[in-house]
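Record type: monomer structure entry
Structure origin: computed from sequence
Chain ID: A
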Amino acid sequence: MMNINCKDKIETDIIGWFDEVAEDSAVVQRRTLRRILELNHGVEYLKKWIGDIKIEEIDENVLESIYASLVPLASHADIEPFTKRIADGDTTPLLTQQPITNLSLSSGTTEGRQKFVPFTQHSSQTTLQIFKLAAAYRSRIYPIRRGGRILEFIYSSKQCKTKGGIIAGTATTHYYASDEFKIKQQQTKSFTCSPEEVISCGDYKQSTYCHLLLGLYFSHEVEFVTSTFAYSIVEAFRSFEEMWKELCHDIREGSLSSRINIDKVRKSVSDITQPNPELASRIESICVELERADWFSIIPKLWPNAKYIYSIMTGSMMPYLTKLRHYAGELPLVSADYGSTESWIGVNVDPSNPPEKVSFAVIPTFSYFEFIPLFRHKLNYNYQNGNITSTNDDYIEGNPVPLCQVKNGQQYEIVLTTFTGLYRYRLGDVVEVDGFYNKTPKLNFICRRNLILTVNIDKNTEKDLQLVVERGSQILSKGTRRAELVDFTSHANVTKQPGHYVIYWEIKGEIDEKVLDECCRDMDASFVDHGYVVSRRTKSIGPLELCIVEKGTFKKILEYYIGNGAALSQFKTPRCTSNKVLLKILNVCTIKRFYSTAYG
């Protein structure tokens, strides 16, 4: 009873702490800014903008306006010369007074290349803090047993050292190697099924097999299933469909598949497992039935005590929700919290909301946040010599405002000032304010700011593309032979005139070509961006091209990124690409092409 009361007290305390800082978010934000500037006063990046201003002598309200007037908005291009010098061994205070011993690598799937971002102990501490806070909110609705297991599909990539001796790796890799990861398990009293050797082995296929094997060994102890991104869970269970007989054999015999060839992984898993014929027979019997039902509801059937599935499910993860719900059956999908390699931003305080309706309450102690108001507007066109040109960008931007001045229903781009050395850094995420938790805003993630598809005057975002692909993929079920969309990406092909959109689909199952023709035509007609519609009508953008790629194509894309240092935990399929290597993979693997007949 004492243990239960202790756990309840920890949860009550951390929610109570957040209630207080959320209620006083304006003051907390000003204090957060002051603390960041005091801790990093005199660093080279800041000194060129604010000189030797005595931060401690300035009133917090005045400091906020002085900071915004003196320090310009920045992009990664402004930070990159400093992170390069850190990577090369420059130990002078460039971005932070605290020595930077780790650099995080972004996934590289959004902008086509990986970026260095400073990672300090503060990064691990805020990760632990948000995990504990989010767990407290989840336990209010989906209480779990103390001492239970978590089936976590988590993966570290290999860490390396830069020329200057700095440890470089993904943010998730740094976190899984930190003391805070171990502390989280102790304090939440929920333990991952897999040992550290499995998480850090660097081979995602071997890690996935071991995660599944150990998850099955502890099947009655598993309280929930999780991964950083929904993609990883879907991929794990797609692998399970092909490996379940081998997994059952290993459980029955207490053996370990020859596909596991890393000695430390074999030893760590073999130390846990032992022959269990009864468990193997039970799993085998369930899998025979599941296979007939196309693996519907596999998770609750094999892990009967699981309460929910927990992962990042917004943004580029939305297309995987249909498959994830198929595997989850009646289990709730709980969207994990909002953050980036640069900083954690908000916590999901309403875990009962479905992923499509989730919002995130900003945590005002983690970073200093500003918001650039974004306004959609009608495009103005110039007609010259039969050509159409656009005179404006995707949004009209207002002046950045502090957190306490955001308005409900307004869209913004987030700007970060962090403890780890980023100052007025444009994150590139578009969010919309969806009410408030006490006095801190709740944010809906809308999309990445960068335009991903544009040929002429057209401007279509990741979200626009997702809506179009969702519309087209719904037609797949109309065929006499049912098929499903596995994954997709796109490319704006401007090598020939007129330029046109190319959408690449990988499909599971067979489908009639006339259905794919209809999918192609329907997607082309579903883009509602006025610039696209006008350009299609005037034939200044050509017909949309739908390319069907062979099975396993998107696995090749995954392996390309992992081979270049990404971790599966951080991987997101790029929704639009101009990367020559990826385009070569996609085009070599294309087995059918369809061209839209929309617009005549």
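Annotation 1: The mean pLDDT is 86.
Annotation 2: Residues 230-253 form the longest helix (24 residues).
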